[in-house]
Design a protein that fits this description.
Distance between the termini: 150 Å
Order of helices and strands: EHHEEEEEEEEHHH
Helix content: 25-40%
Strand order of the largest sheet: 1-8-9-7-6-5-4-3-2
Radius of gyration: 44 Å
Low-confidence stretches: 3-10, 12-31
Largest sheet: 9 strands, mixed
Mean pLDDT: 81
Number of strands: 9
Shape: elongated
Strand content: 15-25%
């Protein structure tokens, strides 16, 4: 297994210019997008995964690796001719040998697409055969596209080239993009929506009523408050309504026996007949 690291430099900028010139000259920017990719096993699920990558179509992504013995530049394009190489979805340039044609790592007419909730794995197969490694099988490119809401299309990076096995060797790339991010769900509950609507209506009532009372009616002071007279009596009206609904009997207690007055009888003045006695 060969692990490679990426570095930026002047050759990187030169290759960008060269690639752009080749692309404009060959007219690879088409309107088909991900439909250009041909799946090894056509299925609705894989086609749906590819459709998530539509914002990345018609773009070339470039990465460079450097080591003491090797210096490579990689170009990847989604369902399009990478660096203008017809049929190639991913290619490799040997920066030390500019006269040699690029090596095709994988073709977009042999595509596989695997997707998760916030990632997509794109696989290009049927690349150029190895000369000595991997039992001389065809090269294969694996591009891992992960969710990053902060960028539309990030920088392509080379993770490794796994060629120290007998078969199923591959180049692994990473790319961040918001295209594969799941849609954000609204966390506002029905009750919250009702409260927001209620506050909005209350604000309209207060502001509109205040302007009407001040500008149309010509009210001053507290009378500018809409329906001021009603709200002043609102407390009393509420108390009266509560008293009427909630109380089940009169406040005064009924007398214990019928026929007996509830009020105490006034004592009649004592009649004195002393004046009638003979002296």
């Amino acid at each position: 297994m060969k692990v490679v690291s990426t570095h930026s430099g002047a050759p990187f900028l030169v290759w960008i210019v060269v690639v752009q010139v080749v692309l404009f000259g060959s007219g690879v920017y088409t309107a088909d997008g991900t439909k250009n990719c041909k799946l090894l096993s056509e299925s609705e699920s894989e086609r749906k995964v590819l459709s998530r990558l539509e914002p990345l179509a018609h773009k070339n992504f470039t990465a460079e690796t450097r080591s003491a013995a090797e210096n490579y530049t990689y170009v990847f394009q989604l369902c399009g001719d990478a660096a203008g190489v017809v049929g190639a979805g991913a290619v490799q340039f040997d920066s030390k040998k500019t006269d040699i044609k690029p090596t095709v790592i994988g073709k977009y007419d042999a595509t596989q697409a695997i997707g998760g909730s916030d990632w997509v794995m794109l696989i290009y197969k049927n690349g150029d055969s190895y000369d000595e490694h991997c039992n001389k099988e065809q090269r294969r490119a694996v591009v891992m596209i992960s969710c990053d809401r902060k960028t539309d299309a990030g920088q392509l990076s080379v993770v490794l080239e796994d060629r120290d096995r007998l078969q199923e060797c591959f180049y692994l790339f990473e790319l961040d993009s918001s295209a594969v991010c799941p849609a954000l769900e609204s966390h506002i509950s029905t009750g919250s929506i009702m409260l927001i609507i209620g506050f909005c209506l209350l604000a309209v009532y207060l502001i509109g009523g205040f302007l009407y009372q001040r500008l149309i009616v010509g009210a001053k002071g507290m009378e500018q408050f809409p329906n001021y007279a009603f709200w002043v009596e609102f407390g009393n009206l509420t108390a009266d309504g509560c008293d009427f609904v909630c109380r089940s009997r009169n406040r005064e207690e009924a007398p214990a026996y019928r026929g007996v007055a509830s009020e105490p009888l006034e004592e009649e003045p004592e009649e004195r007949d002393d004046h009638l006695l003979p002296m």
